[in-house]
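Tip: read the tokens left to right.
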């Protein structure tokens, strides 16, 4: 008995020492990952945004781009008799135009959604403020259309969730004007608890009703019931319809759109992507249609990063990279944005695991502020392909100034009031690069494997 008791304590002591050393090791990685003086924040609580309007009034209002001069207005009412109709105009309270659209609803086991309205309005003037009302009742909302030419500004934040950190990120995004928010997957973190999609819709309405939010899906959107594999993407596809039909896609899980000289391709990490898949064939056709004289910039957004030196989610994007990287490299893709890893990371221009000045720059921005917290550890030694890593919440900003130059900044959330630029880089457009034109045409190995642009 005594021997057993002694062994038990020896095991306990061993485990204590083991976990203490592990903790120290993690701290070392943690500190090496970014600015040494910065103390990274812990996760914060979920904010539950309640419904406090009449049943017929719109809730969860958000907007998205459709074609060059239309906007889709999406909202939900608990009252099923409210018409799917939007009135709009350029003067507050005076609506000289209106449009009717479609509606849907869905069931997810014991949950029944409200009436989900989607109304396409337009044609709209570029860079113009509009005022609108949904369903003929309730508050007036307002949005600004995107510019028709450069410059244009994108805000980027993935893996958003609905926590106090998310609120901080969105408040920082909103402090400086921008034209479009791009979200590389993982929106609500509802994870099959459907009322959390409603709280998320209400949580983001303040921002998503004012600027178009263009999103793609992440693993938290799948929501397929285990074993039976039913209900996959049911909430996401009902609530967050993107302009897939307008871009010749048969699935809301992948699509493309043009905005002010930028062609943006939203790819689906959680649907088939192999060479014989519908997504791959659609991507081939979509890239063949891109006119770089009209849209000099080519940007792709995925959820799972193809390049990642964080310990979290290692290798998860590899099969998609192998399937699609070549196609996008030949199209002279400028940038790949990804989420999934809850940290920020910037790579050099890269192709097939080697630095390549004619490949795209890869950036991971899975740092919106969700309930799961940060991915703290990066692999050591640092890969020469990875130029910046930081495990903090924040958002990115891409300012496309003209057909040749863009400026990227990454903004760390210091606290709920302040953010600071932690990383920045200038990018040159690949479609105007003579060296890359020759490299692509002659299928040569590019000579100078260097990154930073200016
Ligand atoms: Fe994810």
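Filled-in amino acids:
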């Amino acid at each position: 008995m005594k021997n057993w008791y002694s062994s038990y304590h020896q095991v306990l002591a061993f485990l204590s020492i083991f976990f203490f050393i592990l903790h120290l090791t993690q701290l070392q990685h943690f500190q090496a990952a970014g600015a040494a003086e910065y103390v990274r924040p812990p996760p914060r609580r979920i904010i539950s945004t309640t419904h406090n309007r009449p049943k017929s009034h719109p809730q969860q209002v958000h907007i998205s781009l459709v074609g060059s001069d239309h906007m889709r207005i999406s909202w939900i009412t608990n009252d099923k008799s409210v018409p799917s109709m939007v009135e709009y105009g350029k003067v507050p309270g005076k609506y000289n135009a209106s449009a009717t659209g479609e509606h849907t609803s869905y069931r997810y086991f014991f949950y029944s959604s409200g009436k989900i309205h989607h109304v396409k309005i337009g044609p709209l003037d570029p860079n113009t403020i509009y005022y609108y009302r949904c369903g003929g009742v309730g508050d007036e909302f307002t949005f600004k259309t995107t510019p028709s030419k450069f410059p244009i500004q994108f805000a980027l934040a993935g893996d958003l969730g609905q926590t106090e950190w998310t609120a901080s990120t969105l408040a920082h995004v909103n402090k400086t004007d921008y034209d479009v928010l791009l979200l590389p997957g993982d929106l609500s973190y509802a994870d099959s608890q459907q009322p959390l999609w409603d709280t998320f819709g209400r949580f983001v309405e303040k921002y998503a009703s004012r600027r178009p939010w263009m999103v793609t899906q992440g693993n938290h959107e799948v929501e397929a019931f285990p074993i039976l594999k039913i209900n996959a993407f049911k909430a996401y596809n009902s609530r967050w319809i993107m302009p897939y039909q307008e871009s010749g896609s048969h699935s809301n899980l992948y699509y493309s759109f043009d905005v002010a000289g930028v062609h943006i391709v939203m790819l689906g990490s959680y649907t088939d992507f192999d060479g014989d898949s519908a997504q791959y064939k659609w991507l081939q056709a979509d890239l063949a249609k891109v006119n770089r004289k009209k849209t000099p910039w080519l940007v792709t957004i995925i959820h799972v990063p193809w390049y990642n030196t964080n310990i979290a989610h290692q290798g998860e994007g590899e099969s998609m990279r192998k399937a699609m990287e070549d196609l996008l490299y030949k199209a002279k893709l400028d940038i790949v944005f990804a989420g999934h890893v809850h940290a920020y990371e910037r790579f050099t221009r890269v192709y097939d695991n080697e630095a390549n000045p004619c490949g795209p720059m890869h950036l991971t921005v899975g740092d919106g502020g969700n309930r799961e917290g940060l991915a703290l550890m990066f692999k050591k030694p640092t890969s020469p392909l990875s130029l910046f890593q930081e495990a903090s919440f924040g958002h990115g900003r891409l300012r496309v100034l003209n057909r040749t130059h863009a400026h990227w900044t990454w903004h760390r959330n210091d606290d709920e009031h302040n953010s600071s630029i932690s990383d920045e880089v200038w990018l040159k457009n690949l479609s105007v690069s003579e060296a890359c034109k020759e490299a692509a045409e002659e299928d040569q190995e590019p000579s100078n494997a260097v990154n930073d642009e200016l």
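The mean pLDDT is 89. The CA atoms of residues 127 and 341 lie 34 Å apart.
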